[in-house]
Amino acid sequence: MQKSFKEEKPTLYVVSTPIGNLSDITYRAVEILNFVDYILAEDTRTSGVLLNRYQIKKPMISYHEFNKESQENRIIDLLKEGKNFALISDAGTPGISDPGYEIIQSVIKEGFHVVSIPGASAILSALVVSGLVIQPFTFIGFLPKKQSDMKRTLESYKNRKETLVIYESPMRIEKTLNFIYSLYGDRKITLSRELTKQFETIIRTTLKEALTMEHNTKGEYVLIIEGNLLDSTEFNDSIFNHVQRLIQSGLSEKDAMKEVAILRKIPKSEVYKHVKIDK
């Protein structure tokens, strides 16, 4: 049991930083960054801009994906000496598609405090303005780069009813949208980029329409995708009409029949029979 403010211990503060506009930082975050002995920063140059803005003069230690294991012992040793740390990422909340999980786990294992200093989050910022169902939602994060792994990941979420949240780089956005459309058919989607910055852009559209658009290659995207709203247990419509609805949403006849078989938990041959007879 951690009693964060009743029992004093050396502490790792997980501090959320602005995702775009530097004014998005909280008063408490600034206080904590001024209080700690060291700041663990994903990129010291990027974080230096933020710290200079708020005149925070604390030593930074580089902590990122490629040195996190080698830095762990150093951080734990300093905590044992009574030092306090703040963990920050380039933008947003550390550990969310950024380094953080491993050091948080290690600090907890060693018996020190880990305290969250909440603030900006691209997930929530994009979700609440998407116009899609806000809850429940599932955060997937960045998709795997290898196409076979990406397909396997997307297929595992295909029949989920909740809204899906995906991060994507601007250089892969068109390829990813095409891939999602080929697997999911047409669904509502909101694409957000440059959140809280001067050129913040939010596109509320459908997957099919998104494929016809030219997408900016600057600034990471947050994709908010409508869940599978078809009821997988009760179908008042005929099998034939069910297949036709999926075809109208963008699936091929073959894929639509396969999807209906999965959703209704019946053999594909039965779906095929109904479609051919009703034609």
Number of domains: 3
CATH class of the largest domain: Alpha Beta
Q: How many strands in all?
A: 10
> Radius of gyration over alpha carbons?
23 Å
Poorly predicted tracts of residues: none
CATH homologous group name of the largest domain: Tetrapyrrole methylase, N-terminal domain
> What's the CATH architecture of the largest domain?
3-Layer(aba) Sandwich
How much helicity do the residues have? 25-40%
Task: Describe the model.
With 279 residues, the protein is an alpha/beta fold. It has helices spanning 27-35, 44-53, 68-80, 101-109, 122-128, 147-157, 173-184, 207-210, 239-248, 253-264, 268-278; strands spanning 11-15, 38-41, 60-62, 85-88, 113-117, 137-142, 163-168, 188-193, 201-206, 221-225. The protein has three domains: 11-120, Tetrapyrrole methylase, N-terminal domain (Cobalt-precorrin-4 Transmethylase, domain 1); 123-225, Tetrapyrrole methylase, C-terminal domain (Methyltransferase, Cobalt-precorrin-4 Transmethylase, Domain 2); 239-278, no CATH class. The strands form two sheets. A five-stranded parallel sheet has the order 3-2-4-1-5, sandwiched between helices. The chain has a five-stranded mixed sheet with strand order 6-7-10-8-9. α3 (68-80) packs parallel to α4, α9 (239-248) packs across α10 and α10 packs across α11 (268-278). The longest helix is centred in the first third of the chain and has 13 residues, at 68-80. The chain is elongated. The mean pLDDT is 92.
